[in-house]
Amino acid sequence: MSRRRKTDGPSLHSLLSQASRRVTSDLRRVVGAEGLPVEFWRVLEVMADERGRTMSELAGQTGMQMPATSKLVDRMADAALIQRSADPADQRRVILHISDFGLQKFLALGEEVRQHQNRLENTFGPEREEQLRALLRDFIEAHRQSPE
What is d(CA 94, CA 91) in angstroms, rounded to the nearest whole number? Predict the structure, then answer.
């Protein structure tokens, strides 16, 4: 006898995928108006605090794999959104910084993205929205610790 719980409707994987596609599609409409891919926006969002980061720190904070992060950073540096500099403590390491142009893009889109996020958060009300955040954080953390 199977221990698997029988559920009606789409699988959890399918639901998470659908939710991600919808949210990304909506965000694409907002940031695309400034000519930014969603992936660029996600990096700018992390880098907007103007704290330098290593490539591995950026990968961890954006939830991306290192090879994808490296390629994305290359594209963003070519677009003058991010700058690289040598780590003063270890010249072999590279520190990434948001450029003035990248910060301008981030600030230009800030209000529209905030409105998009507010609409998203207001879908459920504050209590259910916080429950969803907690569940998603738990899900991400559980998969961060599990072997790939």
Answer: 8
Number of domains forming the structure of the chain: 1
- The whole-angstrom separation of Cα 86 and Cα 74 is 16
Amino acid letter, residue 145: Q
pTM, full prediction: 0.79
Q: Is 30 helix (H, G, I), strand (E, B) or coil?
A: helix
Distance CA 41, CA 146 (A): 28
Helix (H), strand (E) at residue 45: helix 38-47
Per the structure, the complete domain to which residue 102 belongs is given by 30-119
The per-residue pLDDT for range 120-143, each reduced to its tens digit, is: 788 888 888 889 889 988 988 887
Considering only CA atoms, which of 41, 30, 47 is closest in space to residue 115? 30
For 71-129, the DSSP string reads: HHHHHHHHTTSEEEEEETTEEEEEEEEE-HHHHHHHHHHHHHHHHHHHHHHHTT-HHHH
CATH code of 53's domain: 1.10.10.10
- Which residues, given as ranges, of the chain have pLDDT below 50? 1, 148
